[in-house]
Amino acid sequence: MQKLLMGNEAIALGALVANIDFAAAYPGTPSSEILETIAKEAPKHVHVEWSTNEKVALEAAIGASWAGGRAVFCCKQVGLNVASDALMTLSYLGCKGGLVLVVCDDPGPISSQTEQDTRKFAQFAKVPVLEPSSPQEAYIFMQSAFELSEKFECPVILRPTTRICHGSENVNLDLIDKNACKSHKRPNFDRLNDAKVIFPNVSYECHIKVEKRAKLISKYLQNSSTLFSSIIIANSAKKFKKGQNYKLGLACSGIAFEYAKEACKILQLQIPILKVSSSYPFPDKLAASMLKTCNNILVCEELDYVIENELLRLAGQKQIKCKVFGKLDNTLSFAGELSSEAIYNAIAGILKFKLKNRIKNFDLENDNKINKRGAQLCAGCPHRASFLAVKEACKGKKVAYCGDIGCYTLGVVPPIDTCDTCLCMGADITVAQGLKSVDPALNVFSFIGDSTFFASGIPGIINAVYNAHDQIICILDNSSTAMTGNQPHPGLPFNARREPAHALSIEKLMYACDIDFCKTVNPFDFNLSVATIKNALAQDGVRVIIFKAPCVKLTKKSNLTAQIDNIKCKNCSLCFKSSGCGALSLTKIDEISSKYYVKVDEQVCTGCSLCANYCKFDAIKIIEKG
Amino acid sequence: MKNNDISKLKQNANKGIDNIIICGLGGQGNILASKIIASMYMNTGYHVKSTETIGVAQRGGSVISHIRASKIQNIASPIVSDSCSDVIFALDYSQILVNNKLLNNKTKILFVQDTTPLNVTKNFIPFNALDYCEKLNNYKISNILLIAFAIKNEILHFKKEDLLIAIENCVAQKFLDLNKQAVELVFKD
User: Fold this and answer.
1) In order of start, what are the domains of chain B with their CATH numbers?
2) What ipTM goes with this model?
3) A209-213 long-range contacts, Cβ below 8 Å, gap at least 24?
């Protein structure tokens, strides 16, 4: 059966075909749809959860595996940083039931903090990594990963990138590895045989085992299955043969393999392409035969130079004469996504031919160049209200605004401009503590979302109380993990399966942390919000303000809208220049005239009335849409 | 290499492949439109690959979907090469300018018309979605309206039924009626 599937859906269905017992994740682009799909499609007996954070998710998945269940853990690349403590020791202790870590990298980056490469993490932790080059392959690899994991009793990382996660294609659901899907034994934790305890003398033995394991897996991957690393000849049905001689070959992994094929198709080249499906353990034998047959190899890979390093190592070890081009010699760019254009230009450079472009670029009259438009907070977003209230209350004061990861990072966009630092999940609270400690004249504000608060905010707050820091912490509670697609979190009364759940109260947690100043306000009550912040500013110690109003994507379409009184309005634009609301714009009255008026886009306006706070002429009324 | 004219080489490489772009701003329904078009291709016997913008840009930033489909060969890269698009759908006019490099002189450019005055070449095909939106009392349906318009005007070579099937497959139950109604409305005119 064929189905149009997004890579993340294919991965989820792959996990379900492999009969998983347990799935845990924390949301993060580009990985979120994997657990969402599992939650929707999995049979009842499968435990599916959005965990508090990635570390929690991975540890729970490890427990499931140690009891003999099949478990899957998903996160985005930076999520593995959070879970890395568990990962490093997991590699030593190994697993029982199949355990697959789906870690999604984000070249570009399109929606991430860093362009880090999970393949390096795989090398670091000495855990095998599989790199699918298409949604179809991701589906198949998912099952092979479980087979591999159980055969060698070690966790396996499946590492797709954004173009796989968020790319779709016809996926043939019947192309499965029957062996990998064989049902496994009923989970059972037996104290006598299943104990997993790390201790220094155990670690030494484990370290030796882990190195041996890598060699065995490498051998297994090269000999057993055609699914894994291979060499093809571009634009040809011919098979790669040893002993031939090519002027140039390509080496790639993941989506770069598809870009490389595209580039060869455009240039009509019949050259060998080494497709590395597991950068760790590296397919030494296959790669060596590639090095021997090519005078030059161009390595096409996104993010880090992993394959490039391995080829250079091999060439040295085996004394093979082959020139390796890639990122290290600046043939291809270190940062950003790769493209077929970049590859064919690099090929032209190596083979020393010039590419001409005879067709002129398409000519658009007048205004040729426009930059991409950046993201902004939605019209009616409660974060805007919170930020503007803080700004209003802090007028004339020396402040530092410490932001965090989520929609509210968009507080950095002018004219809102309430984000001076953004480092990683939870760091809004702790970075502020350092700032204030060495620059006591500062008033430090931390902005943290509700989901981020549960994920990694609490230790920072405990630190604030214990070490007597002086700061104002604004918890922006919009009842959602909004940026990644409105997933639930521990503060909400339902879980990943949309079943009822126990909702934790942020206020109660704050009282439990001995915080005396903890106020909850609706940020759309502008005057009360400003007064509360001023009240907080007048005091010392740890002060917490919870700005509580649901994400605009969760609320029913508002029947209210702002309306401009065109007689009172002087077109000063202060309303949108101060609020930064996308529902307002200065528009020409007609095509010929040079006169403008302030236009309200009633389709997006929610009538939140924030803009009215800035009108000096009382020209903005909130009315019912009609 | 004998022929080193890259634009000719690209033309050859793209023979038998449909290259479609959907551009706009986050929140306009770009991802659903992409799913529906890809779905129509798959259901009518094509191999299709597509890629979408999901993430921070969905908050009102520039977003773009690429769809590539072929009946005679497997698609490698899901991304349309520079200057190789056959059709570009613009849910916001400004985004055509952002994606200028994907266009060539034959690219058909369909866009949702707003108040922006235009004097443009014959490649530009404006579509007044607003009238239909008003009739349907929904302003987030431009994406479906635009696809229906493209099929009716034979810019996309599908039948109305193909679109209705794709909608059944891709659209949430509670919006099914609205979406089907939108298609009928465009075809009735």
Assistant:
1) 3-188 (3.40.920.10)
2) 0.95
3) A209/A92, A210/A91, A210/A92, A210/A126, A210/A154, A211/A126, A213/A126, A213/A152, A213/A154
